[in-house]
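FW: tagging you since you asked about this chain on Friday. Here's the raw sequence from the shared folder, copied in full. Didn't touch anything.
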Amino acid sequence: MTAALAAPPPEPDAQEGGWLADAFTALWDAAAGIVPGGDLGVLGLLFALGWMGDQASKRKKAGPAKTRTPGRWKAPFLAVWSFLTFLARTVRAVARFYGGRELHGPARSTATFWTAGTRIDKDDDQAAALGSVAFAPPRISLIKQPRRAPSLWARKVAVWFTTYRGRGARWLDRAVRVALWAARITGKAWRAGRATARTLRNWGCWPYAARALTRVILTAIVTFSLVPAWDVWALLVAVLATAVLGAFLPQMVPTEPGDDVLYGPKLWVVLRDDLKFSDDEPRDNWLQLPARLADEDARIVLRLPWTFRGSDMEKESITALMNSRLPGEWVGRYSFRGEHATAVYTHKPPPKPAAPEPEPPTAVNIWDPEVQEILAALGPDDFYCGQDENDRPVIQKMADEQAHWAVSVGSGGGKSAFLQWLAIQMLMKRGTAILLDPKMVSMTPLIDAEIDGVHCYIDPENVGDMRTAITWVTEVTRARNYQKKSKIRTEFPPLYLILEECNTLADYLKGEYLSDVKESGDSAADPIWRDGVVKILALGREVNVHIIAVFQDFRDTQFGGQALSGLFPFKIMGSYSKKQWDRIIGTNFSMPTPVKKAGRMVIVKDTGETTRIQTPYAPWDPERTKGENQQEAYRLLTAYYKELRATHGYSTTGLYTTPPEPSPEVAPALIQAASRDAAPESRNGGLEGGPEGETAGRASHDTAHVTPLDGHVTPARDRLRLIPGQGQSSSQEAAQDPTAPPELLTLAEISRRLGPADGVPKYDTLRANKTRRDDFPQPTVINGKELFTESQIKAYYAAQEKKA
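HL: got it, structure written out here
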C-alpha cells in the first residue's frame, strides 16, 4: 500500500477532453509562446483587437470607392489586414456578448450597466401626424375604476355554500376548500409565469451586468454539457455567477416605461413646432414630464422661449394640446418673471361640491306664535303664503299687477289646504267670496260652514248657476268702476271669485251652452269667458275684485279662444311635472326641481323670479287626516270659519244686490225612482233611529195607506220624515180648497216640484228657454221676483210637445 501511495499519479488521457478541448488548448499554448507576457499578453492582444474592430465598425462608410487593382506588394498586407479585421470583429462580438450589450445595432433601452431601463421608441417621427388637436387620440382617465361587484347569482351561490348544513355538507366543505386552494395556487403560478414572461420579453431593458452574467451562466451550462474535461470549472463558474446574479435580481426586472417616456417624445414634436424650435433642439432643456402623471402632485414644466408673448390664444392653444394628448384635466400657471418664462401645468382641482340648496321648512303650523304675529300684522291686501328657503315669511299683495292669482298644483300637493288657508285670510279681511267648485271636494269645510258672505255654487247639474255667478261678479265690477270713475265711491271691500278646476268648469259650461243656449250661427265657445272672466281680470284690480283660479292647462281653445295666461302674471305651482310647467309657465323660465310634498310650492312671477315656499297647515287639516279623524277635522275647520266671520264681521258695501241664489239640488234619477219604502238610500232617507222590524215600507206593501189597518201609530212610524203628498189618501187630496188661487212659484221651485214625468225639463233649460224664447209664459213680478204657476209651465211644454 505504501508503494502504491508513493507511486506518481497517472498521466491524464489526452483524449479525455475531446478534440475541441485539445485544439483550443494547443492554439492557446502556441499563442502564449509567441506573444510576450504569456497568457496575460494573449488576453491583452484579444482586447486590443476587439477595440480596433469596434472602432473600425463605427467609422462612416465612404462613397463607392474607385475600383483599383492593388499592387503586388499591397496584396499580402491587405490579406493580413482583412484577417485581423475579422478577428477584431469576432473578439468585439465576444466582448459585447459577455459585456451584456446588444450584439448589433444601438441600445434598445435606457438601461445602464447597473440599472434596468425602459424601451426607446425610435418612431418619434410618427408623432408629427398628431399636429392637429382635432385629431387627438381619446384621453385616458386617471381615476381608478372601481372593481365591479360580483353578480347577484354569484353572491347567492356563495351564500348557499356558506350556509348549507344539509346532507353531505362536510364533504362539500372539503371540496370547496380544495377548489379554493387549487385556485389560489393556480393564480400564484399564473402571476409568476406572467412576470417571468414579461421579464424575458423585456430582455433589452435588463441591466448590462445581469445580461452578462446570464450569458456567462448559459455558456457554462453549454460547456458543462459539451466539454467533460471542463465540467468542474463550468459548474464552478455557473454557481459563482448565479450567486453574483442573485444580488442583481431586484434591479434585473425592468420597469414599465414611465409617462415621460410614453408621452414626452410625441408631445415634444408638436410643442417644438408650435414654439418654433429647431428639429435638433433637445427636449430635456424645455419640457419635463413626471414619470407618473396620475400622481396628485404631478407637475408638467414647460420652459418658454423669449419670443412667446403669452396671449390668451397662445395659452389656450397649449392648454388644449396638453388636455388632448395627456390623460386627465390640466390647468396651467404662466410666469414671465425671472430668468426663464415657464408654464407649470398641474391637475385641475376637482370642483367643489355644490352646497345643498336651502329648503323651506318641513311644515309650517298656523298656531305657531310667530305665524300668528304675521297674520295679525298683515295689511288689507297682504296674504301670507308660507315660509321660503331661508325660513322667512313670504307675503304677497293681492293688488295691482298681482290682483289675480293662478294656482296649479298636482295631486297630493296640498292644493285644497292652500285654498282653505287663503279662505281663512279672506274672512279676516271681511271679504265676500264667490266659490265655484264643479268637483265639490276642495272647499267642503267652507261650504258646510254656511257663512254669511260666502256663496257656493258647486252643483255640476246646475252649471247655469255658475255662469250666473260669474255674470253677477262682472256686473258688480262694472258698477264699482262706474262709481270710482264718477268719484261716488273710491274704496270697496274685497270681493273674491274662486274658480276651482277651471278646465273642468270650462268643459261643463261649454257642454251646457251647446245643448241649451247656443243657437244656429253662434260660436261653439261659451261667451262667459270673454264677456265675464276677461272683463273681471281687466277691470277688477282697480276696484278690489280678485280671481283665484285653479288651472291644469291654459289652452286658449278651452276658454273660448281667450289667452288667459298673460292675464295672470302671478302663478303658484306645486307637485308639477315638466310637461305641466311648460304648458302653464312656458319654456322661457327655468324650472326648479319639483318636490312631491304636500304644501311645497313655487311662486312664479312674470319676470321669471321664482320662490320656493312651504304653505302653512293646521293640525286639523283634512288632507293630513284620514277616517274618523277627517270628520273631526272638518268639524273643527268649519267652526274656525264661523269664529273668524263672527270676530271680523262682514261688509256688504259695494255689492248693490245679493248674489243669485243657487238652484235647489235635485236628486239623481236613480234616487228619484227608488221608493223610500224599498231603499233606505232614497231621497227621503230611512228612519231616524235606523231600520227596524216595523216600518212604513213593510206596511205599504200590504195596503195603500201608511197607517196600518188597526189605526195605531208606532213610535218608529211617528218619526218618519214625509214630504208633501207622500202617504196621503185620495180623500186628503180632495180636501184641498178648489177655489184657492194658484200658487205663484219661482222657476227653481217649479223645477223642484215637477220633473220629466210631468213634461217639465230641468231648471237650467227652463231659465234658458225663458231668456231665448219669445212665446214663453209671461211671469208675475212681485218684489222684483219673476213668479209662475205650475199650470202655466205644464201647459206650455205640453203644447211644445204637441207641436213636435
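FW: The longest strand covers residues 341-347.
HL: agreed, and The mean pLDDT is 75.
FW: great, closing this out.
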